């Protein structure tokens, strides 16, 4: 039985994701970077004012690049790639080697040769610490990685600040992402107990979905800041679509190489002329788990 048939049979709760993001992808396929439709909605979330529109020219003095890391969608590969380019990164590695107790911001070099600023923006506690250290206005991070677009926008770029976040992300089809996450959680011993679920080895994907596993509008919930199982509405879906269309530079894992090229061109990341060398060293499948 194919994944699509499984999902239909057990009615995986991803209606918002599939419908909304399919429409979004169709929109992006008909627009280049300089012709992105701007939402006509006047019901913006407060954090949307902290973000640049993707159509606006980049201001290197005040704009801060933030990658919204959606699990199992290529983000781990991009962390390696940007490290290879020599960019200064803010992610979970940033506070390793004792740097979680630093009292001021600094850029340090890991044994792998990559550069990090000592603030972890991937989680909520780390974002709070990054705010207290002044990461948003410092300009020390070339790329910040996070799973929480609302919180990082609100805390690092408060109302009235001249500094603004500029988001980009890599999106995977929600059905494929849910299935990939299922197989990953079976074997990811290095992850915490909320992610590594070895008991999943005893069931198949169909059973997992029947029991309520899978992607329950994960992306929409984060974009509109409705966490903890709050009920989502069609208005929430439309708000999420507007945010992605106007505030995010979107790449697709199904077109990974083209998406990386798009990001590099948009942000001017290939400063040292080594992107080709770094791309040749990429292993896009090293953190993927096959879907039968």
UniProtKB/TrEMBL annotation:
InterPro entries, per the entry: Golvesin-related_Golgi, P-loop_NTPase
Gene3D superfamilies, per database record: P-loop containing nucleotide triphosphate hydrolases
PANTHER family listed in its UniProt record: COUNTIN RECEPTOR CNR3-RELATED, GOLVESIN-RELATED
Annotated protein name in UniProt: Sulfotransferase domain-containing protein
Organism of origin: Helicotheca tamesis
């Amino acid at each position: 039985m194919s994944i699509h048939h499984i999902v239909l049979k057990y009615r995986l709760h991803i209606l918002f994701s599939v419908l909304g993001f399919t429409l979004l992808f169709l929109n992006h396929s008909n627009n280049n970077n300089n012709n992105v439709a701007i939402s006509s909605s006047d019901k913006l979330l407060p954090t949307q004012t902290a973000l640049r529109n993707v159509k606006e020219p980049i201001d290197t003095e005040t704009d801060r690049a933030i990658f919204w890391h959606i699990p199992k969608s290529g983000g781990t590969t991009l962390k390696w790639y940007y490290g290879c380019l020599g960019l200064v990164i803010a992610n979970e590695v940033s506070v390793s080697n004792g740097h979680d107790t630093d009292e001021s911001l600094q850029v340090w070099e890991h044994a792998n040769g990559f550069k990090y600023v000592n603030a972890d923006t991937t989680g909520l506690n780390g974002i709070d610490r990054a705010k207290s250290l002044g990461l948003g206005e410092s300009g020390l991070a070339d790329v910040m990685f996070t799973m929480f677009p609302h919180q990082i926008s609100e805390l690092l770029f408060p109302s009235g600040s001249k500094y603004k976040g500029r988001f980009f992300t890599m999106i995977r089809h929600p059905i494929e992402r849910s299935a990939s996450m299922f197989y990953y959680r079976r074997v990811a011993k290095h992850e915490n107990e909320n992610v590594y679920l070895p008991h999943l080895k005893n069931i198949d994907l169909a059973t997992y979905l029947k029991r309520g596993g899978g992607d329950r509008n994960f992306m929409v919930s984060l974009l509109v800041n409705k966490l903890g199982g709050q009920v989502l509405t069609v208005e929430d879906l439309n708000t999420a679509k507007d945010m992605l269309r106007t505030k995010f530079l979107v790449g697709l894992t199904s077109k990974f190489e083209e998406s990386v090229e798009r990001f590099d061109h948009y942000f001017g990341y290939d400063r040292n002329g080594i992107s080709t060398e770094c791309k040749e060293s990429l292993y896009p499948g090293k953190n993927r788990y096959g879907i039968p």
